[in-house]
Amino acid sequence: MSVRELVVLGTASQVPTRHRNHNGYLLRWDGEGILFDPGEGTQRQMLRAGVAAHDLNRLCVTHFHGDHCLGLAGVIQRINLDQVPHPVTAHYPGSGQHFFDRLRYATAYRETVRLTEAPVTADGTLAVTPSYTLEARRLSHPVESYGYRLTEPDGRRMLSERLAAHGIKGPDVGRLQREGRLGDVTLEDVSEVRRGQRFAFVMDTRLCAGVHALAEGCDLLVIESTFLDEDAGLAADHGHLTAGQAAAVARDAGVRHLVLTHFSQRYPDPAEFERQARAAGFGGELTVAHDLQRVPVPKRR
């Protein structure tokens, strides 16, 4: 049975707090695991969340500020210590190659796993698999930063009333799905397009074209909301979003489930992020993330 869910490992910005670890987010997508922005302490959070190194197929880093990448060293070494049997691919801004190299080889260890380095240098497609296409878009932050978007290929939904009208049933349904035609009946005659699910991960950024492109039509959007709206000036100065800005992006993009995260330690009441997101007009499902939370990708419509 396929599993599609977000496992939240950490939700703090800049510094951890008593209740929030540095960033870390694992997307389980069918049989693959994509780890986004492993900040300091990610390896221990993985243990607490029941996530193993064997679950990881890709590492995706948005940018090389410490709260988004200092956990890479431990995660990479754990992948090798546990002798993960499959290749692992790392995506990160190409301008930060020297940072990645330092983290990968921060200390002595024995390399046992093939880690493929696939730096991001421009907007575009990073990988195409049977389950998804992974893309990157440039964001607006003081250092080079990219957001990531995962899109499932569109499929077909069989329509029982049309199948019955053509007298197609039993094993013939599967044959029609595989071959696209059964006699004079085509797959398009008895089915409709089932839009693939869409997920996006947007971290440190001001409002920009990349944010909107990543969020468009997402079933699940994970987006930073470091500041509350009254501190919009600080947000712009430091290259971040407010709760209201993030929610407005989701509202305009038709997002089904919005996950707010990456909170400044200056705010003691996380409920205020939800209040401001609702005030911005977002009416879909909303999660103000907390550490070790699991958020399922919404079921297909």
What is this structure, in a nutshell?
The protein is built from nine helices and 18 strands. The chain is of the alpha/beta class.
Task: Sum up the structure in keywords.
alpha/beta; 9 helices; globular; 301 residues; 7-stranded mixed beta sheet; 25% helix
Helix and strand arrangement:
Blueprint lengths: L3 E7 L13 E6 L2 E5 L5 H8 L8 E3 L11 H10 L6 E4 L5 H8 L10 E3 L6 E5 L4 E6 L7 E6 L3 E4 L1 H6 L5 H9 L1 E2 L2 E2 L4 E4 L3 E5 L6 H7 L4 E5 L7 H7 L4 H11 L3 E5 L9 H9 L5 E4 L5 E3 L5
Parallel strand pairs: 3-4, 4-5, 5-6, 14-15, 15-16, 16-17
Antiparallel strand pairs: 1-2, 1-18, 2-3, 7-8, 8-9, 9-14, 10-13, 11-12
Helix pairs in contact: 8-9
Report on the structure:
The protein has 301 residues and is α/β, with parallel strands linked by helices. The mean pLDDT is 96. It has helices spanning 42-49, 72-81, 97-104, 160-165, 171-179, 209-215, 232-238, 243-253, 271-279, and strands at residues 4-10, 24-29, 32-36, 58-60, 88-91, 115-117, 124-128, 133-138, 146-151, 155-158, 181-182, 185-186, 191-194, 198-202, 220-224, 257-261, 285-288, 294-296. The protein is globular and about 65 Å long. Helix content is 25%, strand content 26%. Helix 8 (243-253) crosses helix 9 (271-279). The chain has 9 helices and 18 strands. Strand 14 (198-202), helix 6 (209-215) and strand 15 (220-224) form a beta-alpha-beta unit. The strands form 4 sheets. Strands 6-5-4-3-2-1-18 form a 7-stranded mixed beta sheet. Strands 7-8-9-14-15-16-17 form a 7-stranded mixed beta sheet.
